[in-house]
Amino acid sequence: MNEKIDETITKETLLKGVAVLDFTANLFVSQNLLEAKIVPVFGELSPDSWKEIVKLLKETPIVYGILSKPEVENNVWYIARGTLPVKGEDAKIIFKKPPGRKDLPDDISELVKDNKIICYEKGDIIAEKKLHTPGIPGINVFGEEIPPEPGKWIAFPVGSNVEIFTEDQYLRASADGKLDISDSNISILENYKINGSVDHVIGNIIFKGKLLEVGGIENGRTVNVKGDLAVSGGIENAIVNIEGNLTVNGVVSGEHCRVFVQNDMTCSVIEQAKVEVTGDLIVKNYILDADCICKGNIILKEKKAMILGGYVTFGKTLTANTIGSDQNTTTHIYGGFLNIHVEEYEALKNSYNANLKKLTDIKKGLEKIEEIEKIKPLDDKYQIIKKRFKSGLIDIINELKTSREKIAKLEAIIKLSPEPELIVNKTIHPGVLITINNAHYEVKNEIKYSKFQLVEGEIIYTGLR
Q1: Which of 59, 81, 103 is the last residue of a domain?
Q2: What gap in Å lies between CA 299 and CA 295, rounded to an integer?
Q3: Residue 440 domain boundaries
Q4: What would the pLDDT profile of 194-253 be if each residue is shown by its tens digit?
Q5: Is residue 372 part of a domain?
């Protein structure tokens, strides 16, 4: 039996130790108040002591974490354990992939660390702040709460062209551009330069901003730019889509090279590539065996300023020094908006004519059924056929109307467009085939210093001197 405890057991006495179990052991609470233990004076405690200890605890301020049975370590019985507080989580910045970039993983942290080219448009969310947490309190063996250490707050490291919104929770782009982390700041760069070529190491690029500068674009790469692109070298067998202007100091080449530019394009040479330009195309040297379509002006006026072989289509004016060669190299020159839209125009005309024939056939079918219906009521089979004919008739009429509207728009573009002109400052050789709108002209003899125009439906040329 325990001796009657004359003095009330307090937290303070437990920290020093209280004699229990007929003075054969002492009850201690650790200085951090997270453990209560029974330490025998000598020898080992009897297993029967546990019942006495449970009764004893009711006379103490130990109320939390009392174990269902003691945990024995080196003859010491641990009888209660408190709970440590859990430190709060620090605030964290989580980068969000740009909208529509299904090719990127949801977690782009590693890409950001590696400074990969990731671009955002104005208004896109760049990053979200996972807010710091207060932590979870602990409880000591006296049932008292132990305050946790809260997580650390972190500021958005704001650089240029970014802004914080929604009560410090999100960071968004205030301009189109590439994400950049430098000098511990998050910025959006409207202009970005790659010191080298776009190759298999850099991979394909989607850039949004004012200007992207690269050394070159190598075989098999794809580059999409919302803005301008400047290439100090060349483009070889790559696919390039530019919403702004394109400048290439070197050569655009390769049978598998495809370049699409919504504004103006300037380059030195085009060889075998397919190029489509909505604005003007300026070539500083020559075009060789290429397929070029330009809705504006095509200008070749430096160095050779030559077009040799291939297909070149222009909307307004084409100016060159030389077209074709003394070897009678077949070279196709197309002028005017009709030729720019020739595939679409021909497809619409063919579709329109095909639907006209369908309309005639449907009307004939309906007439035959109506003749049968005059003689006798139609059975189920003919009722279904009649219904299908009427439905088809409505569809064909609607398609014809749509086609007519599209054809009329194209013809209006052609009518309102300035008459295209082909200007040859030096020589145009035999073998050159010129088409302006619907008119054709084959150059059979060498012609110098000439301007070709469409006059009353025919192509004529006049001298420049």
Answers
A1: 81
A2: 12
A3: 191-341+420-463
A4: 999 999 988 999 999 999 999 999 999 999 999 999 999 999 999 999 999 999 999 999
A5: yes
